[in-house]
Amino acid sequence: MIIKPKVLRDISSKKVNNSFKKLSKRVDLSRREIYRFPFAPTLKLLFVPILMVYLVFGSALAPVGSNQLLYAADESREELEKQLEDLETQIAEYESTIDQYKKEGKNIESDINSLNAKINKLNLQIKSINLSLRKLDNDLEENKEQIFSTEGEIIENKDILGRSLQNIYMNEDLSVIEILLRRPKLSDFFGDVMDLFEIQESMHATLEKVMELREYLFDEKEMLALKKLDIEELYDYQASQKRAISETKNQKASLLEVTKSKEKEVQELKEQTEKTAAEIRSRIFKSLGGGELPFGEAVKIAQLAEKSTGIRAAFTLAVLTQESGIRGVIGANLGQCAYNEPWNLNPEGKVMRSSQAVAFERITSELDLDPEKMPVSCPIPRDGLYGGAMGPAQFMPTTWEMYEDRIAAITGNNPPSPWRNADAFVATSLYLKDAYNSSACVNYADTYENISPRQKLQERCAAAKYYAGGNWYTFRWKYGDPVAERADRLQKDINILDQ
Description:
By secondary structure, the protein is mostly helical. 71% of the residues lie in helices and 1% in strands.
């Protein structure tokens, strides 16, 4: 018995590939009559009225929850940014106050050092005066002894002179004959007479010398006493100066202590404000979707890259913030263009250069990604005719190919993805390492190291090379310096959050 099929289809049709699709034309051999409702025409007729009703009433009936959340998020972001702006203004004021206190402190310290020098000088002078006074005391004592000795000689000479005068007086009434008779020899007589004259003359001369010495010693004693009085007065004057200077020094030391105390208080307020600002920045970094990344998480990834490359995490984050950030949020701007989107402002008429497009298609193919759906940077006329930078690191496809193996060796992701944060951070860090250690950046630092720290000079150069390659010198101030400054600010935030 042969069973005939109910539906036949012409398989000789050229559209063999569509043989399993819904059949548009059929031959029904069944005996049962089939009734079909015309759904398609009916839906087509109803589509226009439904669309009009939706357009008129749809906005009133549409759910508002998601829009409210987005609005709330935007409002929160704006409020946080306003708070952050106020805090940064306070930080700047605190820094100015601290600088003023430091300046005052340095001036006070300089005054105190000057006073210390004066006190030390006065101490030496007083020490010298004390030595002079002791020497004068010794001189006075010696002078006193000499006067005492001289007075003894005077007394002795007076006694001798008195006996001589007494002898003369006793012999004054004797006649010459009596004197001669007392001496058996005439020569003895004349000898006595001569001895008497010599004694008189010697005593007279000695007495004059002793009197002169006595007068001299008394004059010297008076002179030494006056000198001692002058030195004692100088000692008292310099001692009073020392006391006055010491009092001034103590006052300035107290003022310095107060100044440093105030500086410390302001420094503590500044640190607390910086901590609050860092926490707010961390909240601003909070993920709102897409490629954005919380600040704390970004720091951890950048620090992992730092361990492998030696480039500090703050510098990597500063570059990533500059490249793919919106108001400091890493990954907030991963590009707004498609790689093959028409762009009439360059010769090839596309966003991405054809050589880059080939590399881009290979990268997305290896990652099983649809190249049409992966956003890239749009061309920026002032910086170049073509776009096509990928992911948070904003690498061009051919540049990414150069670093793929090194990225994979660090992250373990093979193939690495420009849109995966860990891979992008490591890529940025690797590129910055090569630029930082390049001969151009090293020579730049060698040339200007007497003006700025070497690290800042090399980071400025490396950031400019990240942006402009061989044309880095043109962009060292426009791009490189703001990134280096941002790295220092981010480093402060990281240090504060790590406490």
